[in-house]
Amino acid sequence: MQTVLKKPAAGEPCNGCGYCCTEQPCQLAVEFLGCSTGPCLALEERGGRTLCGLVRNPLGYLYKAAHPDSSESVLDDAPNIAAGHQLSVELASALGLGKGCDAADDEVSAEWAV
C-alpha cells in the first residue's frame, strides 16, 4: 500500500491518508479481527486513499477472522445484505468516522508521507 497523502492536523477532516490505522489498529480491529499491531488488517487502499475495510465490508472481514484458513474470496465486493449495511453504519459511528482526524500531532505523524 502506497500512501502519498500527508496526515491532516488533529480535528481536521480525514483525507484518507491511513496514518492512524497504519500506526495502531482501532479497538474494533483488535477485538474482532485479532489485529494487535499496525498496519490494521482491514486497512484498504482505493483510488489513492485509504479506507476501513471493516466498515466497507464488515461481513467479509468478520467471516475471514472466524475462518482464517478459508480460501473463500469474501473481501472484494461487500454483499448486498441489509444486516451488513446496518453493521457498516454502526461500525462507522463507533469509530467516529466523519468527526475529523483523531491521531495526535507529534514528531512521528509530522513525517508521515513526506
Rg computed from alpha carbons, rounded to a whole number of angstroms:
14 Å
pLDDT averaged over residues:
88
Summed up, the helix count is: 6
The strand count comes to 2
List low-confidence stretches.
none
DSSP strand content = 5-15%
Give the helix/strand class: mainly alpha
Q: Compute the number of structural domains.
A: 1
Could you give the order of strands across the largest sheet? 1-2
Query: Helical residue percent?
Result: 25-40%
N-to-C series of helices and strands:
HHEEHHHH
The end-to-end span amounts to: 15 Å
Give a short account of the largest sheet: 2 strands, antiparallel
The global form is globular
Protein name: 4Fe-4S ferredoxin-type domain-containing protein
Organism: Dechloromonas agitata
Describe this protein's structure.
This protein is mainly alpha-helical. It has one domain (19-109). The protein is built from 6 helices and 2 strands. It has a two-stranded antiparallel sheet. A hairpin with a 2-residue loop joins strand 1 (43-46) and strand 2 (49-52). It is globular and about 40 Å long. This is 4Fe-4S ferredoxin-type domain-containing protein.
Topology of this protein?
Layout: H1 19-23, H2 27-33, E1 43-46, E2 49-52, H3 53-56, H4 58-66, H5 82-95, H6 107-110
In short:
It is built from six helices and two strands, in the order H-H-E-E-H-H-H-H.
